[in-house]
Amino acid sequence: MSSIRPVIASFANLLNGTSARRLINRYAPWAVIALAAFLRLWQLGYPSKLVFDETYYVKDAWTLWNTGSEKSWPKDFNPMFEAGQVNGFLADPSFVVHPPLGKWLIGFGMWLFGAENSYSWRISTAIIGIASVALFMLVAKLLFKSQAWAIAAGFLLAIDGHAIVLARTALLDSTLMFFVLLAFYFLLRDQQLRNIDQLIWFRPWLIATGLALGAATAVKWSGLYFLAAFGLYVVISEAVARKAAGQKDWFTAGFIKQGAATFIQMVPAVFLVYLISWTGWILGSDGYDRQSTNNWFTSLIEYHQAAYGFHVALSVPHSYASNPLSWLFAIRPTSFFYEGLKYGQDGCLSADGCSSAITALGNPFIWWPAAASVFFVAVWYARTRERLAGLILLGLAGGYLPWIFYMQRTTFQFYAIAFLPWMILALLFVARHYVNSAQRPVRAQGLFFAYLVLALAGSLFFLPIWIGTWTPYWYWHLHMWIPSWI
User: Which residues contact 13 (CB under 8 A, 6 or more apart)?
Assistant: First the structure.
């Protein structure tokens, strides 16, 4: 270990050079985006089968794109759909429990590249996943005021397996993550301009926050949790700031007037975007429950009541169900796809067989330190009330805490993608604190860089089970570090 430390220190000194820093700041963000793109686009069409919940979202997206609302399919139609018979849907409407926007985006990719091509099923989600990495670097730069820490944030999100798998699969959760992260970016821009000395009824960045949260809610209703978290933050934080500044009317100005202004600027924007996402159903006449009443609005309300009833009553045993208390630690990752071959079958040369797996498992070298960091940040905030720590916890409050109240509901580990960026921010908060408080900052920087290399090595090791690479069975099993991962 003592022989490695001088190497780390020398390397850190090299990176801190003026020329090196200038090159890193200019080109590293693009390199991170390119890395994210490679990991999300390489062999995106594999497998050419509907994996996990793609069986719902891909087919729903295609009927939504073609008819304006989701339609039913013949029983056991997946093999025919995968073979290219993509227009075999029925005229009967289908009862779906998630809003349309995420499926509109999936459908756009299918229309653009051809629905019979499995690559097209996933391209929209993959592009959104790449954009999330770029957006995350912008968010981290606003928070940490540092290009270097922003690059580190983007790098960790780019190489994490949970983010990679969700971006390579036509599900809704990665898209939800993008829009809530976009809303958080807009919220940070709004907070840069906030003025507690006067009440401002027109705050463009706050309205943009509402629009982004409307898009998030139009993908999955859990976007409403972030609306509650972000809206309450604006009101409470500004009321507290007014009180600290000695304003006599801080309660009235902060909670009542600012609460009303925040509501008016955010909630109608959310409602508007959400309603627009239902345009196909509203303008059509053959969507599920569309004709249940005399007008579309009351019919839409009845539809939502039925969907809500489904969500709250969902408690169906599933082999990959995961309790929300375990999400931070990646105890029970979701297997999206698995196929096995016997020795000699289709070129398998391994005596114990071969495997192709796609498992939504986060990089343990990112997830486990990040989980520990979340608790550090929570304790730090309780002791110091540091605003940066509070903003990091804000995303976790919106994305994670509400699920604690649904312990009996069937839930899955991959839902955690919605708050993964804030877990990484917590990790970087701790790393930044360590570097800034170290007696030898250069050495501390070198150790953090060594950690990034370790995380990258971990991603290279786990990459085959994130993208479905055929490997010997023993090699797949080598990745199953704890029994609950199988």
Answer: 442
